[in-house]
Specification:
Elements: E1 17-22, E2 25-30, E3 34-37, E4 40-44, E5 48-54, E6 63-68, E7 71-78, E8 109-116, E9 121-131, E10 134-141
Antiparallel strand pairs: 1-2, 2-3, 4-5, 5-10, 6-7, 7-8, 9-10
């Protein structure tokens, strides 16, 4: 079970906080934790809905993807890598050392994006791939279903 599977809107990671735009990116602050929202594109093809999320430096196990009702929730955690100084192979662990940043635009830590799907989708036909810093989630649209109307044989049409 993923972290947000079966969650209600009250359990949303965005509940009880506020959005703020920082450097063109959405950053979410809550009382519990700071959650950032990665740049996300959503587009439609004749047969699929495609969600593409820009989030470099991730591993397969760093993602939690779930579909709750009509909401696709993509969450995870991006760890801050060690900083390498010229000539130093060991690196500096930013969480253990005090650093003075001159410019800081890359987000680390917990992230989450929620996409409300305005289409009927096939819940069994969802696939996710991660390549070159982009997570792509492809969901097949559900086909239109025609519902036949039965009329019993012994029923006569009314004039």
């Amino acid at each position: 079970m993923t972290a947000y599977e079966g969650a209600s809107s009250v359990d949303s990671p965005f509940q009880g906080g506020m959005w703020r735009s920082v450097g063109g990116y959405g950053v979410y602050w809550s009382r519990q934790t700071r959650v950032w929202r990665p740049p996300t594109d959503v587009y439609e093809t004749p047969e699929h809905i495609v969600i593409r999320v820009e989030v470099a430096g991730m591993r397969e196990e760093d993602f939690n993807i779930s579909l709750v009702d009509r909401r696709l929730i993509i969450a995870g955690h991006r760890a801050e890598p060690p900083l390498i100084e010229p000539g130093d192979q060991k690196g500096i662990n930013p969480s253990e050392e005090r650093l003075s940043y001159q410019n800081m635009e890359i987000h680390y830590g917990d992230f989450c994006t929620e996409i409300l799907l305005n289409w009927h989708v096939d819940r069994e036909a969802i696939e996710a791939t991660y390549q070159q810093g982009f997570l792509s989630v492809r969901i097949r649209k559900a086909g239109e279903r025609r519902i036949p109307v039965r009329v019993p044989r012994d029923e006569k049409p009314q004039p």
